[in-house]
Amino acid sequence: MVALVTDAIHPYSFGGREIRYHELYAHLTPHADLHVFTMRWWHGPRVRTEGGVTFHAISPLLPMYRHGVRSIWQALIFALACLRLLRQRFDVLNVDQIPFLHLLTLRVVATLRRKPLIATWHEVWGPEYWRYSTRVGWRPAWWIERLAMRAPDRIIAVSPETARRLRAELGERAAITIAPNGVDLDEVSRAAPHEQATDLVVVSRLMRHKGLDLLLAAIAELRERGRAITCRIIGDGPERDALREEAERLGIAEVVEFRHDVSEQKDVYALVKAGRVFAFPSTREGFGIAVLEAIACGVPVVTTSARDNLAQHLVRRSRRGIVCEHTLDAFAAALADALDGPADPAAVEPWVGEYALDSIAAHVVKAMLP
């Protein structure tokens, strides 16, 4: 039995890590009895089975964000709830890194049960993140993150850059396997562009560090220059109301479409293909699955060189990708350049095949089930 612990699951929560696990279920279940331990996202019994996966609600459903950043209260309650796994039988304990505190609890569980603890690591947040998100006591938060890095027996990093940052803390001998996020290229190819086209499109959780306020400001600036630009923002999150209010304040609400209702990947791909340029102003990404999906859809991507935006490494590989400074003028200019570029919607770059879901999933299975 494989016990997978994550506080957020698809389709109740929509983000890169939720999609990663959701798409891996079908590849894991032929090899192991898969049980997912999470918050109580659904109504009904605490334990339910769907698609060969057994889901266990080990904690109440609590808001994951407070004032736009991760809730310490939710992290603490979920960490304590993970002690319930002491009563479970499992052979491998795999845990999502976020929100850190539960890794310490599960280290105790794995030690007492004498089972391996494997963590999937999406990004190293680091002291700068904690200074930004924690008004007081950022040093203890950073120490907890560093301690959490040392809890697993093995780590699966979702990108080479994340692995490099982990080794900078843990040393070169740390047991780290790189298994990036994958894309179902067959489903991408089957998706037809949505009938309603747009100039700019972005898929993102609506959070402060995603930089969507910069995108709105760039749209306003370009429209002031006489460019009639439209935009579609796909996703949801704690900044939903603030971003809508900002679009109103900037006078661009009529040209920015917010889509909070998209949960199926085929619909995401259709909407992305309907865009001329994929805008991605995030300041912090451990990988950037939305960027990879946009490139797979044949849509050019504009992102920034913000230090913690590791998605820029994907964009630099793309023939039509643009990486600019993380400033309003640079981002607006890059968007304009991309929109003025030649249309080539059918061009899927060969290197994207490295991220085909089947091969990535096989690598993850091997890392989880050695």
Written overview of the protein:
The chain is of the alpha/beta class and 370 residues long. The chain has two domains: 2-178, Rossmann fold; 185-352, Rossmann fold (3-Layer(aba) Sandwich). It has 14 helices and 18 strands. A hairpin with a 2-residue loop joins strand 3 (47-50) and strand 4 (53-59). The mean pLDDT is 92.
Question: What would the keywords be for this entry?
Answer:
single chain; 370 residues; alpha/beta; Rossmann fold; 2 domains; 8-stranded mixed β-sheet; 6-stranded parallel β-sheet; 20% strand; globular
List the helices and strands and how they pair.
Elements: E1 2-5, H1 16-28, E2 34-39, E3 47-50, E4 53-59, E5 65-66, E6 69-70, H2 72-81, E7 92-96, H3 101-113, E8 117-121, H4 126-133, H5 138-149, E9 154-157, H6 160-170, E10 176-178, H7 185-190, E11 198-203, H8 212-224, E12 231-234, H9 240-249, E13 256-259, H10 265-273, E14 275-280, E15 284-285, H11 289-296, E16 301-304, E17 308-309, H12 312-317, E18 322-324, H13 328-340, H14 357-368
Helix pairs in contact: 1-14, 2-3, 4-5, 8-13
Strand content: 15-25%
Which strand order do you get reading across the main beta sheet?
A: 3-4-2-1-7-8-9-10
Corresponding CATH architecture of the largest domain = 3-Layer(aba) Sandwich
User: How much helix is in the residues?
Assistant: 25-40%
| CATH superfamily membership of the largest domain | Glycogen Phosphorylase B
Global morphology:
globular
Using only C-alpha atoms, the radius of gyration works out to 20 Å
Q: Structural class, please?
A: alpha/beta
